[in-house]
Write a structure and sequence with these properties.
The complex is a heterodimer of chains A (327) and B (339).
Chain A lengths: L1 E4 H15 L3 E5 L15 H5 L4 E3 L4 H14 L2 E5 L10 H7 L3 H4 L9 E6 L14 H4 L6 E3 L4 H13 L4 E6 L2 H4 L1 E4 L12 E4 L4 E5 L3 H14 L4 E5 L2 E3 L3 H11 L2 E8 L4 H13 L8 E5 L9 H7 L3 H13 L1
Parallel strand pairs in A: 2-3, 2-4, 4-5, 5-7, 6-7, 10-11, 10-13, 13-14
Antiparallel strand pairs in A: 1-8, 6-12, 9-11
Helix pairs in contact in A: 1-7, 3-4, 9-13, 10-11
Chain B lengths: L11 H4 L4 H26 L13 H9 L7 E3 L5 H6 L4 H8 L34 H14 L6 E6 L6 H12 L4 E7 L2 E2 L2 E2 L11 H5 L3 E5 L3 H16 L5 E6 L18 H8 L3 H11 L5 H24 L19
Parallel strand pairs in B: 1-2, 2-3, 3-7, 6-7
Antiparallel strand pairs in B: 4-5
Helix pairs in contact in B: 2-3, 2-11, 2-12, 3-9, 5-12, 6-7
């Protein structure tokens, strides 16, 4: 077991899957010679050659569409969108095609692709290098969506996505790349898609989230413990399908729930999680369901005070958690 | 080809590598497609089906192209008017009728999609959708995968001239050009994108765009069966030799309205349609076969009777076949557990 950065865990997952199965290949902008703009695919072209680590033309719909064609032929492509902000030209291919291929062909054709896309801000990326577009794809039946927070899950979920018989969007958080690290086994393991994970056991409040903001939640929970507030944290890990059982169990544990994500509030994943809780557990709650998300503005600005204002941080999260505990 | 005697003539189709038998089969497939299409128009008018989108006027190019491919191994990404094409690569009239009536046994989609949305893994007809031209990048991906696996096949994809304006056409062509992939792109330029005529869709010729992607582009008379056959066959030979993609613009005319929901005389005249009906490639090809001594009115009568029977039986089968169980709507969103 090695302590590893989140980005290295992603790279290791691709490397292992490509070694395991020669039908697995990577394609995207700058993924080959350069090894990706974030170095996520660094070293892969040297090991596997140009045809399996393919530098594509700068055209996202083709990256997705060509991957879909290859997948229908029987390959296992991992298509990289350089930033999730640039994924929208490929939305028709993802939503009209990949998501519906099994269904529209009555189970005759399948589309086992993985689309990796970096999400999240806090890197002075401005409007178009910072977005969290989960809600655009969330709620599209036929797609699976994962968004790891821990390095362990980054590797295990990507390996599971590659082996999945259906299209999986893998949202990796670029702020996590170097900031999040942890124990990652060197052996072959997967993290099952559709299973949430309890990050911390607690009795007073439940926080449900995914991806990078969970770091603030963990830090805040450690602080609040000193104040006598015990936090139960659930990492969704998979956004679609949501692990309904785990969500309900986590809320039942404390009767007070706060849902956190960096995607904006309206129509976000948190809205669906709230609805599930309201449908099933309304009378077991000791406080109204709370959500802490980014504001409903188009995207975050590049100026530092504006970006800071937009982004979640430990203090904002801690305050929301404390308020819930005191309710 | 086996020469039986020195008096046997060699015809243009023989020179192109098409046996007499296949040349005749090609004709029979065009007529079958036309009759199937006409039956659907009738079924819709009679209220037996809700909708039909016709390929009348485009069958010659569709069938000729199919016969120029390896129908046992190549991959096909037809667009929604390609009845002639899918019949030529092995789909049956019965299977198409099951789709027309949206019945459970429909191999294209199990009665889920509109007619004309073809798909059959068995026949390597890749499942298609309604947003146009999304199939072009898929064809490129299949060609790339085949190249990676060193399989000597091509992918063949069709689309209309209106569709050729979509980004996916350009993105797909460019990708295929960069990687010199074995894909053949055939635009069925039928002069109309629903109501919008070609001069409002295209500033130039579709075929000329190939130059910008670094591969050859050809315009061909889509009513000339043997010319289409030749151009597609040569494109396939180039693709298999590792010389990359070819763009073909087959010129034709959509003789039917866009669909049964369209009144085409709101935007074009009957005279224009009639003028183009006179250029129909099916009778032209029939005349060629007659001149070769391969066809006559007796054979024509037999063919029409045979087709009539096939279409009648298929219509009856499709009409009587059961719909999918309503709750089957919930199936096949994802792979089922344990499969």
């Amino acid at each position: 077991m090695a302590n590893m950065d989140y980005i290295d865990a992603i790279r290791l997952a691709m490397k292992e899957e490509m070694e395991r199965d020669e039908d697995v290949f990577v394609l995207g902008e700058d993924v080959g010679v350069k090894g990706g703009v974030f170095t996520t695919t660094k070293g892969l072209q040297e090991q596997f050659g140009e045809s399996r680590v393919l530098d594509t033309p700068l055209a996202e719909s083709a990256i997705a569409g060509v991957a879909i064609g290859a997948a229908m032929y029987g390959m296992k492509p991992i298509a990289e969108m350089q930033y999730s902000d640039f994924m929208f030209p490929a939305t028709n291919q993802i939503i009209s095609e990949a998501a519906k291929i099994r269904y529209r062909s009555n189970n005759d054709w399948t589309c086992p692709i993985v689309i990796r896309a970096p999400i999240g801000g806090g890197i002075f990326g401005g409007l178009y290098h910072s977005q969290c577009p989960e809600s655009v794809f969330f709620g599209t039946p036929g797609l699976k969506i994962v968004a790891p927070y821990r390095a362990y899950d980054a590797k295990g979920l990507l390996k599971a996505a590659v082996r999945d018989p259906d299209p999986v969007i893998y949202f990796e958080n670029k702020k996590c790349y170097k900031m999040i690290n942890g124990d990652v086994p060197a052996d072959d393991y997967i993290v099952e898609i559709g299973k949430a994970n309890v990050l911390r056991e607690g009795d007073d409040i439940t926080v449900i989230g995914y991806s990078m903001p969970l770091m603030f939640v963990e830090q805040a929970a450690a602080d609040l413990e000193q104040e006598g507030i015990s936090t139960h944290i659930l990492d969704l890990r998979t956004l679609q399908p949501l692990d309904k059982e785990a969500i309900l169990a986590a809320v039942r544990k404390t009767g007070k729930v706060l849902i956190i994500h960096e995607d904006n509030k309206t129509g976000g994943v948190g809205a669906e999680v709230s609805a599930i809780i309201a449908e099933e557990l309304l009378f077991e709650l000791d406080a109204p369901i709370q959500r802490l998300c980014s504001p409903d503005v188009p995207a975050m600005p590049i100026n530092p005070p504006g970006e800071k204002y937009y982004m979640l941080n430990k203090d904002k999260v801690k305050e929301a958690m404390r308020n819930l505990a005191l309710y | 080809m086996s020469q039986k005697g020195s008096t046997e003539q060699t015809f243009r189709h023989n020179e192109l590598g098409l046996s007499n038998e296949l040349a005749v089969e090609m004709y029979a497939t065009m007529v079958l497609s036309r009759k199937f299409d006409e039956r659907n128009m009738l079924l819709q008018r009679a209220g037996k089906i809700n909708f039909h989108v016709s390929g009348i006027g485009q069958e010659v190019a569709q069938v000729a192209a199919a016969f120029a491919l390896d129908r046992e191994n190549d991959y096909f990404l037809p667009y929604y008017r390609d009845y002639g094409f899918v019949l030529a690569v092995g789909m049956t009239v019965k299977e198409l009728m099951l789709s027309v009536f949206a019945k459970a046994e429909d191999p294209n989609s199990g009665g889920r999609q509109m007619p004309g949305h073809f798909g059959s893994k068995r026949l390597r007809i890749v499942t298609g959708s309604s947003p146009v031209t999304t199939q072009v990048p898929h064809a490129v991906g299949i060609a790339m995968a085949a190249k990676m696996k060193k399989k000597p096949i091509v992918s063949f994809v069709t689309f209309g001239e209106g569709s050729s304006n979509q980004g996916d056409f350009h993105e797909g062509c460019n990708f295929a050009g960069v990687h010199k992939l074995p894909v053949i792109l055939m635009c069925e330029n039928n002069q109309y994108a629903i109501s919008v005529p070609v001069h409002k869709q295209l500033g130039g010729r579709v075929a000329d765009r190939a130059l910008g992607y670094g591969f050859p582009g050809f315009q061909v008379d889509g009513n000339d069966a043997l010319e289409v056959f030749r151009v597609v066959k040569e494109a396939r030979e180039r693709a298999i030799a590792g010389e990359g993609p070819t763009l073909i613009e087959a010129m034709m005319y959509r003789l039917s309205p866009h669909s049964t929901s369209d009144n085409d005389l709101a935007y074009r005249t009957k005279e224009e349609v009639d003028e183009n009906r006179a250029k129909d490639g099916i009778p032209k090809y029939k005349q060629y076969l007659e001149e070769c001594g391969l066809w006559n009115e007796e054979l024509e009568a037999e063919l029409l009777a045979r087709i009539r029977k096939v279409v009648d039986e298929a219509t009856e089968y499709g009409d009587n076949a059961p719909f999918p169980a309503p709750e089957s709507v919930l199936l096949h969103v994802y792979a089922e557990e344990g499969h």
